[in-house]
């Protein structure tokens, strides 16, 4: 009952401020203020304020909100795990089977023909020296393009 009285008083005060704003020839702002002022009155008339007051002090309602929260948490956790592991059980089995078929068991190491010579390894480059000209060639091209 107190909530309804407070909401009605807030609505009356808001409509009064809207009237003063309209008197000052600021009609758009006055209409917006009137709209905001009528919201608490509409909530009282629809019974939403009474429902919120009953829900706020009801342990059964809070238990229901707790159960809904746990359900939402479980749902989101299972979705995150499903995304991380790659889908459903059927999808994972199909992926494992496709992976087994893609690679032959004896093809794990590359084979060389008898008598084949391995290519020589490249010598290790000194740090700072290798490719220094290559790194700046594109920058030089940009500078030349702009006449610098």
Round the mean pLDDT to the nearest integer and report it. Answer: 81
Residue runs with pLDDT of under 50 for 5 or more positions: none
Q: Would you count the extended β strands for me?
A: 0
Portion of residues in helices? over 70%
Please outline the helices and strands:
Blueprint (H helix, E strand, L loop, with lengths): L1 H22 L3 H20 L1 H9 L2 H27 L3 H14 L29 H14 L3
Helix pairs in contact: 1-2
Keywords:
mainly alpha, 148 residues, single chain
Please provide a written account of the structure:
It is a single chain. With 148 residues, the chain is mainly α. The protein is built from six helices and no strands. The termini are far apart.
At a glance:
This protein has helices at residues 2-23, 27-46, 48-56, 59-85, 89-102, 132-145.
């Amino acid at each position: 009952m107190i909530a309804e009285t407070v909401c009605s008083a807030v609505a009356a005060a808001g409509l009064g401020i809207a009237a003063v704003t309209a008197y000052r020839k600021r009609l758009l702002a006055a209409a917006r203020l009137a709209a905001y002022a009528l919201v608490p009155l509409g909530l009282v008339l629809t019974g939403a304020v009474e429902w919120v007051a009953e829900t706020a002090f009801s342990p059964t309602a809070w238990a229901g909100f707790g159960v809904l929260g746990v359900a939402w948490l479980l749902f989101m956790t299972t979705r995150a795990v499903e995304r991380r592991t790659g889908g459903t059980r059927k999808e994972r089995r199909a992926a494992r089977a496709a992976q087994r078929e893609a690679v032959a068991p004896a093809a794990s190491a590359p084979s060389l023909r008898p008598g084949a010579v391995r290519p020589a390894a490249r010598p290790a480059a000194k740090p700072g020296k290798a490719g220094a000209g290559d790194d700046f060639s594109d920058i030089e091209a940009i500078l030349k393009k702009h006449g610098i």
